[in-house]
């Protein structure tokens, strides 16, 4: 942990030394290093004047208490910052061993090695040089968590409370030449200003409620007449920028001088620079003055967007006798606007393909403050085809904006609040004014960054929200036109805020796969009521089974005790050896679901964008494993960025297909479409298609005539038709569509089965009940196929849909579905006539969706079914959809899916029944396990011994009554 901390420190120092506002060495005293430290558990430090004595402990800054093992051991009585809706952990008997001292395993989120909420003191001696006399001396704390209170020697300087911006104190009146003592009291408890315990700016669900200071920590000596603020307002159309400069004069004399500005590009192949613009300036004593200058650009002006993120540095000089102050500001010439229901970047329509960043930093427990660290994260996001990031109820440090400018991403930071589960907006609580204050600080600190294109006040509020958010949006629309504004990011049941410039909203998302999967439908009717851009809130949330190999990565302030608990519980249920298979099988289904939901939005005309939840896992709220990346932004092994970006990119071929399972007497038809959100139209593009079998044999192919495609969703390309009569055996086929001459391609699997009537083999006794005849057949060495659909008792409580678990079953109090895909023994000869991989795919829908599962809790420890639904990791029940066994002298296959001769309208179910019968009639039908008839009979008689019980009356907002009362009329 110490080694990791020093690496973080090195990055922080490098960033502070290379930042755009770096000062000469003699004007900066860096305060990184060892500080005196003491925990103020009883909140008595102020009364006892701890600022007047040496503190008894030491700590290293930048950093947090948890990082240096300061704080308390985790117990069941630890006072967390975050809601816990599922209290069953505290009562379930099988979890009792995880509630014991020394073996505490918290399932709700990652567990810090140490935890502390309250006041702590940080103290350091500094030597102020004589040449600083007469200068303005600032204490810069890049990010402190949460409230800081500062003393110089025995004099109090002040108090600040910001979750989004540096805490900067003017120490000029308090410091003198020579050795001085600076004391900082930091309090990370929720006090009068309550942003909400689940806000990602403070909660244990994500970064954690840490106590400390990170990033740049320094004393800076600047001119007493100084440039306080520079804000740049690009005017791309007219090739100019309006530059607003505020100069402060802290002296007792009037100031007269000159100010000059000039800009030069720095990160593009083609360079550009402006002419210098200057003006005279007068500032009265102890006053300030704001001026505006127009900075013209020439014909070589470079613009910023996701494709060409060209940037400039603006150099501002303030010159007078004895005064020479300067400031460098990074910016991009761009215009991010809305026309109708579309976003425009520099006049070009853009579709937002976003992911939600929840402040996941599992090594430090606090956000990165270096550009290098953020570039790694943001480049990874962009490699998966995304161009947009929403920061859920938090605002990242400046380094994130600098990196996003360079990488080319559109950002939506938020006010650091989820004002729900306690606080509410619009009722006069302190959070009301705090959100104005915080977003004002965000605009001042980060407003020049080209990537800062959108702003939300926070997440999913309660209270008098419409009135409050209307006023909030109106305030910002009038104040700053460099970005676009919404109220708060909300789910579909929240009331509509009429004044927002765009909707960041749920309700028009998801896959309606209670009916047969298809790729024809879209969201047109859902977005029709909205006349502004609709950006879908938190799409996806499709779960995957935990990756237990991830546990070893947690070498910082957190331990993955939740993963450890789930791993041991899986082993206790005799499935420890299956964890990786569960991960990969559920992962493949997860990717399939993200693909289909994203494509549904891309083919919806007028849909403006989405914010996925997410590309990476969410470590809290019960452990929400919704990402194809882990919380470290690293791959889990079942999908690559190249594969993912086939369906999530600036250009994506689409296919409208009515169904994915066919009889060979039918014709496969598809309408080919295109999504394009490029910098320029696709000129004379040729779209081609190919249908292949699993041997890569080309069965059919074609091209569409060259055409120019403007930016848009679901643009019609043409139709294809492929008769299936020549497909004589059960086959998986693949349709691939490409934009010729580019890397843009996409594909879809579909299945074709012989059109035959299901029949019962004479050598097999088919039954829907485990009757006396079945027992007699088994005792005599015969074969039995038991179709147990709708007969299951042991496992009846487990609800399986085709779609996987949403978010996680703990946060939603075991709301179904409970199953996250299936593991299929695809190499078994049982599937010789039913092409399948090891995971659920679309041909399994009519077999799997809403089928009962069987709980094998009394089966032998090594028993593995042919088709195994993967249970939620909070329960880890050993489940089966189809299993085989030897019983007595005979052999049996038991299916809780409806497989049999009476199933006429489900081609995949019919074909699977055919394949299983052929298997039973082959000499390969030799089940590994011997079972008693009683253990099988018990599935249809006795309920599960272990069933979920919730002990919490409260619930997340999404489950509360009346949550759908405010739909758009």
From TrEMBL:
Signal peptide: 1-21
Record GO terms (molecular function): beta-galactosidase activity
Pfam families, per database record: Glyco_hydro_2, Glyco_hydro_2_N
Compositional bias segments (type: Basic and acidic residues): 948-960
Annotated Glycoside hydrolase family 2 immunoglobulin-like beta-sandwich domain residues: 225-334
Any one GO cellular component localisation term in the record: beta-galactosidase complex
Catalytic activity: Hydrolysis of terminal non-reducing beta-D-galactose residues in beta-D-galactosides
Residue span(s) of domain Glycosyl hydrolases family 2 sugar binding: 30-219
Coiled-coil regions listed in the entry: none
Keyword Heme (UniProt): no
Gene Ontology annotations of biological process type: lactose catabolic process
EC number: 3.2.1.23
InterPro entries associated with the record: Bact_Beta-galactosidase, Beta-gal/glucu_dom_sf, Galactose-bd-like_sf, GH, Glyco_hydro_2_N, Ig-like_fold, Ig-like_GH2
Family: Belongs to the glycosyl hydrolase 2 family.
PANTHER family found in the cross-reference section: BETA-GALACTOSIDASE
Protein name per UniProt: beta-galactosidase
